């Protein structure tokens, strides 16, 4: 089959590779219908996530049709149209039973690679380095899905392929962030980043009862989406002082909750940004903390900070600011299985729009160009979608 492979930093090639096969009786093989880029992929492509190997297949956000079923799969049938969360959950360990599916104990065969740093390993995830399990990704004609009864969700007829696609990762990540905020009627929520996850977080905050949602970015087309499609108040951080603007909007109190949907490759300004960029380039740390630091400072006293962006090692984390203000900080990789039923219901009822994220479409053969446009945000690209 054909697949998009990582061959080194910023070296992506579409190659012919072996077809996936059933490895465990609980597996299925999926014919990929649609798969999309994600901001987290850029960390892999840029060499900020260690333990990638030459030839690894990229992609972790996808949907498609089941074409082969393992003998112990009970609820999924050949021909089912399904969406699959990016993190792999066994469905039976303590963490899965408590809804913390991205912390699953049983789906990362390379747990030892993470234990030295994290203490305890995360679940496995498609195409996110060998430290996260070494699973082949979805930017391919076919992909193996382990624990299919737990990880494949049948898509209702009223939900299109493109709507379902973003329920794999962007929507559950954003929805989880809003859920972390424990939103009450009348709350104001500020979201840093108007990419796929940030736009889903903003939309989810409204679904959960927020009165005002403020969307922070610097790209006019993304801010326009936040305003026109989601209904958020857009703020361009290159044109206004975000802290002062948030104080003005909230009557001097600050947002009740802040959501960081940016992560380790944040853009920023000034000496602090230059410091972060220099240390990242020298591999003295992995993270640029501009968005996260700003969110911590801006959040009201006693408020909630939800961190959805991917981070590694950061210098100058303002822990004292968070502690003295009494902030609640919640963060996780997305627990997609926990939220999927709700997300499918929202999508089927027209309450959650996701398909507008698909700004650019490519064949799998043109995937390297798609990633180039996505990474450089050319032509207003929010997400590049590949159809094998």
TrEMBL record:
Kindly give the InterPro entries that the UniProt entry links to this protein.
ADH-like_C (IPR013149), ADH-like_N (IPR013154), ADH_Zn_CS (IPR002328), ER (IPR020843), GroES-like_sf (IPR011032), NAD(P)-bd_dom_sf (IPR036291)
EC numbers: 1.2.1.46
Which cofactors is this protein said to need? Zn(2+)
Q: What class of enzyme is it?
A: oxidoreductase
Q: Carries keyword Oxidoreductase?
A: yes
Can the keyword Metal-binding be found in this entry's annotation? yes
GO molecular function terms noted in the UniProt entry: formaldehyde dehydrogenase (NAD+) activity; oxidoreductase activity, acting on the CH-OH group of donors, NAD or NADP as acceptor; zinc ion binding
One Pfam family linked to the record: ADH_N
- Write the record's keywords in alphabetical order, separated by commas: Metal-binding, Oxidoreductase, Zinc
Residues covered by the Enoyl reductase (ER) domain: 8-377
Family membership, please give it.
Belongs to the zinc-containing alcohol dehydrogenase family.
Q: What is this protein called?
A: Alcohol dehydrogenase
| The gene coding this protein | fdhA
